[in-house]
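Journal club side-thread
Mid-discussion, someone asked how the predicted structure for our own chain would compare to the paper's figures. Pasting it here so we can look after the session.
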Amino acid sequence: MRDRLKSVSGKKTLVTGAASGIGQATARAAARRGAELVLTDIDAEGLAGTVASIEGAGGKVLAQRALDITDYDAVTAFAEEVHAGHGSLDVVMNVAGVSAWGTVENLEHRHWRQMIDVNLMGPIHVIENFVPPMTRAGRGGALVNVSSAAGLLALPWHAAYSASKFGLRGVSEVLRFDLARHGITVHLVVPGAVNTPLVQTVEIAGVDRDDPRVQRWARRFAAHATAPEEVAEAILRGIERNRFLIHTSFDVRAGYWFSRKFALPYEYAMRKANDRFYYSLGDGRRR
């Protein structure tokens, strides 16, 4: 086994979802630490803005490409280009993701499909293309997968989202041991509320987003949310300290501990949370 990665400084580092939110904040924070970046996002304009801000501050971007991580061929072509020009990477960060909430009677097939395609198969496409060359290079490194509190806990209306995030958690737990022999550490990030553009754009199936009750919940969420810059720093500290589970807020850490230690009270709390969520949005539900 190689020594674990102690810093991203001087390391070739891929960040997906780099156009905004956690991905953008993580790319910028890694650049400040001296990482040599490879960046992707589906948003070409936002990605260009991230690249410009990093290079304007003296950071180094080796390669960047606007692509959809659900497109395996596009990810493969980009990986081939990166490897041809720069060799294998040292750090791979799967940050890109989307969200949709709803009860099972309101969720449509497209919601389930989008969550799995973007949040689970997207990271798998990245892992397939970028991690095997890391193992063959023999330099060690790190793999970071951004899951969610919804990958640990049974949050209300999160069935489709949790399907993808629990799946990514499972992939990460297995690869944690599988990649250890190659000196590649694996890190699962489990944020709670994070104040990103996703807060205002997340689709809630069967609910009118303009309803005052829904807006009140959104404001409450935003007020409680962590800044993406704080999440980015937590991710980089987690890599440096070789933490598998990277928590970004105390409430998620406490909730996960509670769920494992007190199964029956946890079940009661989740039932009550689901009821409260359902009835508090009653007037906002579409008829």
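Post-session note: Residues 12-284 form a domain with the Rossmann fold fold (CATH 3.40.50.720).
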